[in-house]
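Record type: monomer structure entry
Structure origin: computed from sequence
Chain ID: A
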Amino acid sequence: MIAVLIVLVVFGSIFGGSALITSIAGQNKLRLLQEKRAIAELETAAKRPAPLLAPTLSDPHAAPVLALKLPEPQRSQALGLLCQIQDAPAGLDARSTYLVKQTQADYLPQTLRAYLDLTDGARQRLATQGMDAQTLLSEQLDLMTQGVREALKLDHAAADRMLTQGRFLRERFQGAAELGELSLPEPHSRVPLDKV
């Protein structure tokens, strides 16, 4: 009787264990499919051009409002950068769009606030170190302007597509040539239709 119970326990654990393994494997496949679907949705969303946010002039911390408080020529620099951002095409790739949006929403306003929040003591401290606040602001505005200009020139998505196509062609044709899959019929020989 005990031997029968032992045999039942052994067979039960084998069949129950394989069902458990099958269940886990199925869950893993489902999880992988869900992850692939989520990645595909993110890639699709990234391919859609996202509109740039229009600055709200009612916000006292918005870059246009802050730019108007600057002395010349920094005011013109900041407003020129804002115009460059506003004129950015809608079909930018994801990296360029991110840089332009961040410059408009974060980098430029923070830079302008840092300058406008300088106290007389802070200006004196900069002066003792041989730095002028207006010159520093101009340099920072130049850096952002150059960065945005370069981002607008670059098309990362087109370059990525070209690299992807090159990898595909290398895999397809180099691998096929090595395996002998690219055997074409002689130009003047006739191949029966049932052989094609």
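Annotation 1: Residues 63-158 form one domain.
Annotation 2: The two ends are 68 Å apart (CA to CA).
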